[in-house]
Specification:
symport; mainly alpha; 17 helices
Length: 452
Amino acid sequence: MQRSDKGKGRENWGSRLGFIMAASGFAIGLGNIWRFPYIAGNNGGGAFLLIYLAIVLIFGIPLFYAEAGLGRKAQAGAISGMRKLAGKGSPWVSIGWLGTLAALLIMSYYLMIMGWLFAYFFNIGIGTFQGITSEQAAVVYEDLISNPIAVIGYSIIPTLILGTIVSKGIKNGIEKFVKIVMPLLFIMLIFLAIFSLSLPGSFEGVVWYLQPDFSKINANTLLAALGQAFFSIGIGLASAFTYGSYLKPKGSNLVKDGAWVVSLDTFIAFLSGLVIFPALFAFQMEPNSGPGLLFLTIPTLLEQMPFGYGFGLIFFCLVIIGSITTGVGLIETLATNVSELFHSSRKTSVWMTIGVTFTLAIPIILSQGPWSHVHLFGMDIFDLVDYVSGNILLTLGGLLISLYVVFQWTFNRFMQDINTGAETIKLSSAWKPVISYLIPLSIIIILITGLI
């Protein structure tokens, strides 16, 4: 992803598989393995899942096409790209600014979550969870997150890893990394889901996860599902825009590749639920345990498995890898904008971005310990940042993208641009009422009712 400085042209993905794996890796990461189960757990399980799948199908695919298509068309990062497409003073440039702000806020708490993952990897390695009960696992989790010195120390590790990978660019950094690690992550999650489903009492968790209880659905559920879908796929984060900008303008099949990205992302989200919820009910734990759900469930699950702790090391290693693929996309998004706005080199932009996000992570880490008493709008700093970035900024970003397609791009030109490079499967005019009316109106209604 080298910039045009020093006489070099913009770098492109080395292969279709590279783009699919990188975009899927960004989407899959912690958004599905960590965030999806706890958001589903807080919103009633089966009812949330049904709404989430509908939103992904109706909203997610066309909006991913739109955002990645804007990036491919602009051949630039989100802010510079929207200036290029709509004009420097245009209000549509706010698409780039909103996405960049959302990426910055999400990355600031991602570093904390990644620090937790590294801490768990270390604790499994030294045997902390051997012979542990679910109650004792909860104590270990609370002790960790309330210790800011430990979390900051562990968070330095992923910070340095992300900086190193993104500094190397697309082909030698991101693409090479994801081609190796993503297949391993798929296999490991499938194996864990099979084992979780084999536990006594797990079927109750499957029923809770798959059987919709429509009494659980309210405006907040709709907003949470919309925010999670956008969060997971990367809509409104400027990351689909950034990754799309490294596609060749006329030599890439965005229709088919985008469908692969969204399908893989949704499959992993669904699979993560099949790992977590059957195990929760088997161990008689609450599904609405919040952000700590993964960290409370997996250690107890590993205790029941033969060779569980060797397996646990591998699992947390792979979840760390998944978190890194997401972090890489967020850092790349931010660094691209920094580089283009300030005309700085890739390495300078990356490490500037790393420094800012790490600094912002510190108050979020403190909010789980010494600053846990600090509440704004009834939420601690972490929950507030997660809510504002995941539910409000991403939803607004998705809304603006849909409105841009309607009023600025127009459907016919949008369809023509997205179908550039497509072969057997193409975006058809049947999507026009969905994209022109259903998506923007639905987002407006969900956003307003959810906030009220």
